[in-house]
Task: inverse folding
């Protein structure tokens, strides 16, 4: 048996798991969003302002470590900060909902239209994220891993070109689709690097080429190489996020060199572990809409255990936590992880 | 009893043999395609292949051959979309391909619609569809709309982020009997319930049949909110709408 690992801070634990090194226990992580209405009230940092003002963003994000005992802090609750900076039509919504892009009113039609503004990073909605990361780095230094988020080109294309026009284009014109993805990747890289400079420990990279929309072969054709490239261009552990069904593309994405993949409950922990064959760490996959939102701590615990037993390297919700998810369900995640490890430690 | 070998179009034979697994669906498609002329089979195959140029050309040819607009629509275009719906449900086909099929069907419909309108042909029924307030997920709703149109329904698409008033106004403006609501977020799912309440307040709840759907929605949730039905995919959306309009027609009769 390997020597027991000395007790780690949240940050050490997450970084070790991302680097494939031994951990004292499985880290609890959410690479997408932990914001809920209850947490907003708790620290007086409600949506939509918490998506647009750095102090509020940092304060709400910190609840994941301070109040929920997660080992990560993720200040970006949405998927739209970059799209706002690129000029998409925005709907900031209110306290009870996530902000969104009006994808039915696309801003671009061809790759020629794409412009990443020179002052892209100076846009207030990106500055807000960068400043929130600086605050969190300062205040939670070694306690928790501060994770940033930079959107991949496939998701940015949904926002800027509209989902349906873009998906049709991907079928009609492969080279134009590639030009679009290449150009948009510049935004992914720019914002990613800026977050490294601001002090992020790792970055989530959502890119919604999900099995609910496109085939696994599509991922291999259009994204595998781009994602592989990001590993060199954005030198920090990257966590790919694709929600929905993905087991048919886990083989491909496990070859990108990214540190981890954040997976959805539409894929079981066992089949997912089998599909990636240890080439990429997994984070997930507690169900949001039925379990965290609508069931109780006992069911949450069951799903945590299922992940731990399958050997999933980091445990947490599958995607952005439902804003109305009850706190007791969220707090149960880290409790369950600790209990499971305590049980393992008892000699038989 | 016709068999699959009675279908002349090779592609259609392949599609049915390869992808249609449920016996009752297999039988329905074999019966349909073995009973129609080869040109209509070719139209269906063009729709399944997402070939809008060919669907356009063959539809014009069929009209020139004297096949009625209704027959071309029902047997060729809608027949093809029927197979597309099953392939999508079973994950043999993904969204880009389905969008291309819908585009092909639309190319054919462009020649059919003016003729049906001139004859004063009745649509299968009128449906209002929208994604509820605060929700911008529309892919599932749009696929439902394509399949509804593919089944001959006249659909008014209210888009995303649809308020209660927009649903109510649309029912009144288009005199529609069927309303479909979509929600993909647990945060917006309750807006289906508030919309239903708004229908009650506006005193028009009894004038419409309301169906709901979207990934987090369940039968139980639909019942709690007082919806008339829940549908789990685009094909069930079509069967619900068909059931509602048949019931309406038999009431009227
Ligand atoms: C693609 C996607 C997106 C795209 C949406 C693009 C678009 N224009 O629609 C993008 C990337 C932009 C996006 C954004 C967000 N998303 Co999203 N998204 C998805 C994903 C991966 C797939 C959804 C989809 O399109 N499926 C394919 C279609 C065909 O299926 P469908 O919609 O279910 O529709 C079928 C049936 O349900 C049915 N149906 C649908 N409507 C109707 C209506 C009637 C009347 C009937 C009868 C049937 C019916 O028929 C359809 C065809 O078969 C899901 C993952 C999942 N597990 O579902 C998450 C998911 C829905 N998203 C989620 C989240 C959290 C978000 C964001 C909040 C992320 C964020 N942090 O900002 C934002 C929300 C923005 C907003 N306010 O709406 C969560 C929701 C969880 C929750 N708590 O509610 C999900 C479930 C992911 C997860 N596992 O947690 N998302
Ligand atoms: Zn997600």
Result:
């Amino acid at each position: 048996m390997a020597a027991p690992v000395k007790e780690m801070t949240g940050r050490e634990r997450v970084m070790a798991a991302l680097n494939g090194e031994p951990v004292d226990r499985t880290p609890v992580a959410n690479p997408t969003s932990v914001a809920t209405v209850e947490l907003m009230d708790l620290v007086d940092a409600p949506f939509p302002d918490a998506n647009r003002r750095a102090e509020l963003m940092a304060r709400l994000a910190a609840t994941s470590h301070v109040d929920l005992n997660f080992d990560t802090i993720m200040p970006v609750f949405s998927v739209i900060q970059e799209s706002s900076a690129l000029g998409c039509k925005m709907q900031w919504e209110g306290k009870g909902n996530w902000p969104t892009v009006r994808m039915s009113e696309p801003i671009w039609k061809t790759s020629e239209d794409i412009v990443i503004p020179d002052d892209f990073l100076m846009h207030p909605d990106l500055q807000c994220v960068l400043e929130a990361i600086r605050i969190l780095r300062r205040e939670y230094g070694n306690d928790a891993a501060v994770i940033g988020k930079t959107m991949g080109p496939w998701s940015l294309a949904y926002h800027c070109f509209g989902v349906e026009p873009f998906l049709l284009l991907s079928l009609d014109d492969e080279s134009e689709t590639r030009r679009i993805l290449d150009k948009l990747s510049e935004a992914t890289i720019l914002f990613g690097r800026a977050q490294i400079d601001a002090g992020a420990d790792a970055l989530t990279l959502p890119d919604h080429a999900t099995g609910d929309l496109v085939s696994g072969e599509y991922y291999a054709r259009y994204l595998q190489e781009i994602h592989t490239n990001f590993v060199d261009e954005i030198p920090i552990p990257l966590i790919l996020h694709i929600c929905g069904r993905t087991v048919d593309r886990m083989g491909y994405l496990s070859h990108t060199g990214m540190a981890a993949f954040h997976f959805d409950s539409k894929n079981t922990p066992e089949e997912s572990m089998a599909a990636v064959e240890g080439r990429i760490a997994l984070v997930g996959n507690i169900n949001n809409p039925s379990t965290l939102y609508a069931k109780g701590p006992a069911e949450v615990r069951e799903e945590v255990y299922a992940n731990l037993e399958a050997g999933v390297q980091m445990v947490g919700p599958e995607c952005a936590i439902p804003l109305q998810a009850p706190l007791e369900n969220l707090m149960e995640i880290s409790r369950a992880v600790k209990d499971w490890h305590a049980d393992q430690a008892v000699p038989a | 009893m016709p068999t699959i070998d009675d279908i002349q179009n090779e592609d259609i034979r392949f599609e049915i043999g390869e992808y249609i697994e449920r016996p009752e669906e297999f039988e329905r498609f074999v019966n349909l395609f073995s009973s129609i002329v080869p040109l209509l089979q070719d139209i269906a195959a063009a729709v399944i292949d997402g070939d809008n140029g060919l669907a356009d050309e063959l539809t014009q040819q069929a009209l020139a051959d004297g096949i009625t607009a209704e027959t071309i629509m029902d047997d060729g275009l809608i027949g093809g979309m029927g197979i597309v719906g099953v392939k999508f449900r079973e994950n043999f086909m993904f969204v880009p391909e389905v969008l291309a099929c819908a585009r092909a069907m639309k190319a054919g419909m462009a020649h059919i619609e003016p003729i049906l309108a001139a004859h004063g042909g009745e649509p299968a029924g009128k449906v209002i569809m929208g994604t509820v307030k605060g929700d911008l997920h529309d892919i599932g709703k749009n696929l439902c709309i394509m399949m509804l149109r593919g089944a001959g329904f006249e659909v008014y698409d209210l888009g995303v982020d649809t308020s209660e008033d927009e649903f109510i106004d649309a029912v009144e403006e288009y005199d529609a009997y069927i309303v479909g609501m979509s929600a993909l977020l647990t945060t917006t799912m309750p807006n289906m319930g508030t919309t239903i309440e708004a229908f009650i307040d506006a005193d028009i709840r009894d004038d419409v049949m309301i169906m709901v759907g979207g990934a987090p929605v369940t039968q139980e949730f639909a019942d709690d909110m007082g919806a008339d039905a829940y549908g789990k995919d685009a094909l069930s959306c079509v069967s619900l709408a068909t059931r509602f309009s048949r019931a309406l027609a038999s009431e009227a009769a």
User: Anything to note?
Assistant: The first strand of chain A starts at residue 72 and ends at 73. Chain A is about 50% helix and 10% strand.
